[in-house]
C-alpha cells in the first residue's frame, strides 16, 4: 500500500508560501471552545504534498484515463468549461451568508437552474437544497409523507419498491418511517402489473421507480402503473438515476410522477462522488409545492431573493446549513446552458445509441444479454452464467481481468435478479473506436477463460495491487489516516 | 447440487425451518442461498421478544456481493437468535444448517408450517430458479 501524507511529516517543516498570515487572537471565542493544541496537520513541503497527491492520482482508474462503463453510474466526461466557469472569482468568493443583493449573479443562475430542471422533468417546482442524491431521496419521501399528513391521511405505511430498484430506495423509505414492500419484475424487465394491483391499497403511501429501470429498459406500462397507484391514493416517486437516457425526450411529469430527485453528477455532468460535495435537487407537482425543502430562490420585482421558512411555512425544512452545494449546482447550470434544449436530446440519443451498439456487438460476439427481446436504454446487462458454468469463472473474475486491459469494470452483481451479471453503461461521451475496443477485450477475456481460467481468477495482474481480499476487508475493517506507530492518544482512528 | 437435509422444511426465499418442541422453530438460510450470496461479512439477527408477521423481514445477511433480508416463514415471536454470528458471520457459510442457524421463533399457529416446502419440493424449486 502507499504511504500516508503523515508518513512524510517532519516536525517544524512547513509550507510558508501556502500558509495564511497569522491573524489576531479571537477574543470573542469562549475559552472552553478554543483548541488546546494545534490540529494534527502533516508538516510537509509544497513539493512533498504535490508529489504525494500526484502519485495517488496516478494509482487511480478514472474517467480522465480509462473507459469507465460502470452501469447505473453514468460516468461521462465532465466538460472542463463547467469547472472553469463555476470557478469564476465572483462565484468562488461569494459567502453563503452574504445578503442577496451581494449575490444577484449567483442567485440568477440558481433561479434559472430551478426553472430549467422543472421544465426538463415536467415538474411544477424544484428545490436545489438537497446536498446529494440520497438526501434528495430523503427529501422526496419526506414530502410524500408531509402530503399525506397534511390531509390527515396517516394510515399509509408502505412504499412499494421494485426488486430491481437501487438499494437507496428502500433505505430512504425506511428512513422516513415507511415499510418498503418489494414488487417483482417480469421476464421482459417490466414491473409485474398484477403484483402491483395486488400490492396497492389504503396502506400505500407511494411507489419509488427508476425509469428506465436498473435493468436498462424503459418501463412500458408506466402510465397504467401511475393510474393504479394514484387510484389507490398513493404518489409516484421518480428516482432520477437514469434520466440521462430520456433527457429532453420524455418527462417524468408526463409519465405521471409526482415527486422526483435528480442526480446532477450523473445526468448533468458534475463530478462524481468520492465523498465530495454532491447535489440532489428535488422537483414536485403543483399539489406538493408547499413542502419543498428550503431555501429556494424566488424573484420579486426583478430582484432575486431567498425563499425561506418564512415564505414557505409547510416546508419539510432545511437539508443543510445553507443552500446545497453551490459549486456543484453551478457546474450543472453551465453544462445545461452549453447543451441547450437540442443538446439535451442529443445526450439521450447518443447515450442510447452507444448502449445499443455495444449490446448488439457483444451479442453478435456470443455474449448473453439479460433481456434479449428489449431494446436497451442507456445501459444493458450481460449475464456470464454460461461462462461461469462452462469455465468456472465468475463475473467478478471477468471484471477484474478487464482492469488489466485498461477498462474500468462494469457494475457487478447488480441488479441482483440476474445471475453473474455485468451492468454496462458506455454513456454518450465514448467514441465508437473505444466501444469496439471494449468488444475486443470481452472476446479476448472469454478466450482466456476457456484456455486459462486461472488467469482470470487471479486478476488483476498489472495494477499496483493484486486481487483484494474483499471478505477480510469487510469483516476486519481497519481504516486509518494517521501512521500506525504514532496514533493520536485520543484514538481518532477510523 | 448443494445439500438439502430431508428433515427440514423450506421457503421460496431459501430459508430452512426446523420444528423443535413447544411450537418453536429454528430458522436459517439454505446451503444454496449461502453459496449464491458468497462469503458473508455481516449478519443482523432479530431481537428476542419482537413479534413478526409471516413474510416480515426478520434478519439481514450481507456478503461482499449483496445484502438480503431473511423473512419470517410464518407469524410468531422471536425467542432466540444466534449471537455468535455477530463475531463470526462465516458460520452461515461453513455450516448453514448447524452452527449457522439465525434465529428461533415461537409460532403463532403451528398449522401454518404445513404450507412450507418439503426437501424434495425445495430441491426442485431451487433447480427451476436456476434456469
Descriptive account of the structure:
The complex is a heterodimer of chains A (494) and B (131). Chain A is of the alpha/beta class and 494 residues long. Chain A folds into two domains: 84-339, 3-Layer(aba) Sandwich (Aspartate Aminotransferase, domain 2), CATH 3.40.640; 349-475, Aspartate Aminotransferase, domain 1 (Alpha-Beta Complex). Chain A is built from 16 helices and 13 strands. In chain A, the strands form three sheets. A seven-stranded mixed sheet of chain A has the order 1-7-6-5-4-2-3, with helices on both faces. Chain B is of the alpha+beta class and 131 residues long. Chain B has a single domain, classed as RNA polymerase II/Efflux pump adaptor protein, barrel-sandwich hybrid domain (OB fold (Dihydrolipoamide Acetyltransferase, E2P)), CATH 2.40.50.100. Chain B is built from three helices and nine strands. Chain B has helices at residues 31-37, 90-94, 119-130, and strands spanning 9-10, 15-19, 24-29, 40-44, 51-52, 57-63, 67-71, 76-81, 103-107. In chain B, strands 1-2-3-9-8-5 form a six-stranded antiparallel sheet. Classes of the chains: A alpha/beta (494), B alpha+beta (131). Chains A and B meet through α16 of A and loops of B.
Amino acid at each position: 500500500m502507499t504511504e500516508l501524507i503523515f508518513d512524510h511529516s517532519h516536525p517544524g517543516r512547513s509550507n510558508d508560501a501556502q500558509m495564511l498570515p497569522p491573524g489576531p487572537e479571537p477574543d470573542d471565542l469562549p475559552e472552553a471552545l478554543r483548541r488546546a493544541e494545534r490540529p494534527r496537520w502533516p508538516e510537509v513541503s509544497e513539493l512533498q504534498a504535490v508529489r504525494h497527491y500526484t502519485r495517488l492520482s496516478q494509482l487511480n482508474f478514472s474517467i480522465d484515463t480509462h473507459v469507465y462503463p460502470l452501469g447505473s453510474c453514468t460516468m461521462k466526461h465532465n466538460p472542463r468549461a463547467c469547472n472553469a466557469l463555476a470557478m469564476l472569482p465572483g462565484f468562488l468568493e461569494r459567502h453563503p451568508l452574504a445578503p442577496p443583493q451581494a449575490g444577484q449573479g449567483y442567485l440568477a443562475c440558481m433561479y434559472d437552474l430551478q426553472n430549467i430542471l422543472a421544465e426538463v422533468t415536467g415538474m411544477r417546482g424544484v428545490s436545489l437544497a438537497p446536498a446529494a442524491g440520497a438526501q434528495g431521496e430523503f427529501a422526496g419521501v419526506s414530502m410524500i409523507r408531509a402530503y399525506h399528513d397534511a390531509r390527515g391521511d396517516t394510515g399509509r405505511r408502505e412504499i412499494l419498491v421494485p426488486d430491481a430498484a437501487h438499494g437507496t430506495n428502500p433505505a430512504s423509505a425506511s428512513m422516513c418511517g415507511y415499510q418498503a414492500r418489494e414488487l417483482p419484475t417480469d421476464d421482459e424487465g417490466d414491473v409485474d402489473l398484477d403484483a402491483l394491483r395486488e400490492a396497492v391499497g389504503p396502506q400505500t403511501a407511494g411507489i419509488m421507480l427508476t425509469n428506465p429501470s436498473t435493468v436498462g429498459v424503459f418501463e412500458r406500462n408506466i402510465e397504467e402503473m401511475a393510474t393504479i397507484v394514484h387510484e389507490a391514493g398513493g404518489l409516484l416517486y421518480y428516482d432520477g438515476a437514469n434520466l440521462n437516457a430520456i433527457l429532453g425526450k420524455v418527462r417524468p411529469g408526463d409519465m405521471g410522477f409526482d415527486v422526483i430527485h435528480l442526480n446532477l453528477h450523473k445526468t448533468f455532468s458534475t463530478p462524481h462522488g468520492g465523498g465530495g460535495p454532491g447535489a440532489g435537487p428535488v422537483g414536485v407537482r403543483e399539489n406538493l409545492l408547499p413542502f419543498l425543502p428550503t431555501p429556494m430562490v424566488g424573484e420579486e420585482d426583478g430582484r432575486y431573493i431567498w425563499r425561506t421558512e418564512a415564505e414557505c411555512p409547510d416546508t419539510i425544512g432545511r437539508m443543510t446549513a445553507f443552500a446545497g452545494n453551490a459549486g456543484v449546482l453551478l457546474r450543472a447550470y453551465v453544462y445545461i446552458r452549453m447543451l441547450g434544449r437540442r443538446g439535451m436530446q442529443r445526450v439521450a440519443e447518443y447515450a442510447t445509441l452507444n448502449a445499443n451498439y455495444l449490446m448488439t456487438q457483444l451479442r453478435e460476439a456470443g455474449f448473453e444479454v439479460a433481456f434479449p427481446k428489449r431494446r436497451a436504454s442507456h445501459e444493458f446487462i450481460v449475464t456470464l452464467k454460461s461462462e461461469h458454468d462452462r469455465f468456472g469463472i465468475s463475473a467478478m473474475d471477468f471484471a477484474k481481468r478487464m482492469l488489466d486491459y485498461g477498462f474500468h469494470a462494469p457494475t457487478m452483481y447488480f441488479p441482483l435478479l440476474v445471475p453473474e451479471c455485468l451492468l454496462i453503461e458506455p454513456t454518450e461521451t465514448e467514441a465508437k473506436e473505444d466501444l469496439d475496443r471494449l468488444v475486443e477485450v470481452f472476446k479476448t477475456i472469454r478466450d482466456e477463460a476457456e484456455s486459462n481460467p486461472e488467469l482470470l481468477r487471479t486478476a488483476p495482474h498489472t495494477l499496483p495491487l493484486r486481487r483484494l481480499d474483499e471478505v477480510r476487508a469487510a469483516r476486519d475493517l481497519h481504516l486509518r489516516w494517521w501512521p500506525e506507530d504514532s496514533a493520536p492518544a485520543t484514538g481518532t482512528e477510523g | 447440487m448443494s445439500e438439502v437435509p430431508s428433515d427440514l422444511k423450506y421457503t421460496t426465499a431459501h430459508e430452512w425451518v426446523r420444528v423443535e418442541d413447544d411450537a418453536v422453530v429454528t430458522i436459517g438460510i439454505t446451503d444454496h442461498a449461502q453459496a449464491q450470496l458468497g462469503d458473508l461479512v455481516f449478519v443482523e439477527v432479530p431481537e428476542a421478544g419482537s413479534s413478526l408477521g409471516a413474510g416480515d423481514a426478520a434478519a439481514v445477511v450481507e456478503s461482499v456481493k449483496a445484502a438480503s433480508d431473511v423473512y419470517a416463514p410464518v407469524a410468531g415471536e422471536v425467542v432466540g437468535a444466534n449471537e455468535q454470528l455477530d463475531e463470526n458471520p462465516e458460520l452461515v457459510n461453513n455450516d448453514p444448517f448447524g452452527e449457522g442457524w439465525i434465529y428461533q421463533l415461537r409460532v403463532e399457529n403451528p398449522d401454518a408450517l404445513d404450507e412450507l416446502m418439503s426437501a424434495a419440493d425445495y430441491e426442485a424449486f431451487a433447480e427451476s430458479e436456476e434456469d
